[in-house]
Amino acid sequence: MASISCHRAVPSNKVSLSSSSSALFTTPLSRSSLFSTVSVPSRASRGRISCRISSTSAPPPPSSVNGPAKAGMKDFLHISDFDKATIMKILDRAAEVKAVIKSGDRTFLPFKGKTMAMIFAKPSMRTRVSFETGFFLLGGHAIYLGPNDIQMGKREETRDVARVLSRYNDIIMARVFAHQDILDLAKHATVSVINGLTDYNHPCQIMADALTIIEHVGRLEGTKVVYVGDGNNIVHSWLLLAAVIPFHFVCACPKGFEPDAKTVLKAQQAGISKIEITNDPQEAVRGADVVYSDVWASMGQKEEAAHRRQVFQGFQVDENLMKLAGPKAYFMHCLPAERGVEVTDGVVEAPNSIVFPQAENRMHAQNAIMLHALGL
Fold this sequence. Notes:
Elements (H helix, E strand, L loop, with lengths): L2 E6 L10 E3 L17 E3 L7 E6 L29 H19 L12 E6 L4 H13 L3 E5 L1 H4 L7 H11 L2 E5 L3 H10 L3 E6 L5 H15 L6 E5 L4 H10 L5 E5 L8 H10 L3 E5 L2 H4 L5 E4 L11 H7 L7 H7 L4 E4 L11 H4 L6 H19 L3
Parallel strand pairs: 5-6, 5-7, 7-8, 9-10, 9-12, 10-11, 12-13
Antiparallel strand pairs: 1-4, 2-3
Helix pairs in contact: 1-6, 1-13, 2-13, 4-5, 6-13, 7-8
């Protein structure tokens, strides 16, 4: 039996700070990455009680609830924070775990005894249900925190939210507006942080998309993916994936609605994929393996919806555009779709539309991401 001895440290006017640094990401592509690693200092304490446990058996692994450093844990904030081997390993794991879940086997419970805090600054059906259901199916418990539950950055500072939730949970997922919010969460949290969407990027969606393309086309490398519409956060994540995995990515968008220039340059300078930004959707889709669309006015842009509908005339994915792509081209959409606006009802319901397998794969890709983040 283990014996426990405790003593209280004598308070002192001197406070010593011990810090442990942990890389937020695994295997950055280059030193010139847009995003840098952050060291998370541990909290100093006065007059703390220290306990020594003597036992012949090895001590249990540290629990995230007790607020340790992030050693061995990984955040998932941008796809380009990982190398090709890691991304493909996560996608392979997603396929494996999907097969287990689809088989009806409920004995694979790697998240048993673990909890996840889900922060939603903006609502979502797919993100909430896919994360919550996926975490539950693998044995864990997810806690939904809606826009009015925290009001992160308004009611309470992001750094305080990160440190408090880290002491209650094993992992944090956040769907926020400002990209800086997810960076601040990861900086101050002592558990893994998963990017469920920001105004800048949507890495979990694109991992699900990659899994879907592998399932239907048979491969991701060497495919031609053509995105038609606004150069938004979905496009940014496609570009960051193209900086890691070799394929041909084309963004066809109206003038003035191109993706972030620095992200385009990052993808091009990686020298991995062929990257094109064009204003001609008809020419862009020729020979595509996948034609991809998204709403023209995202959440927070609805006041621009009427103006955007005028500017985006000619960028609707309709049956004629899909014919130009060719008979083997699949249609993808991250949903929700405004049928009759960025895409016709006929295209969404066509036999070569894979929007619903794509939606399902959010859960499987995210399960694999969380397994990787937790080192399971």
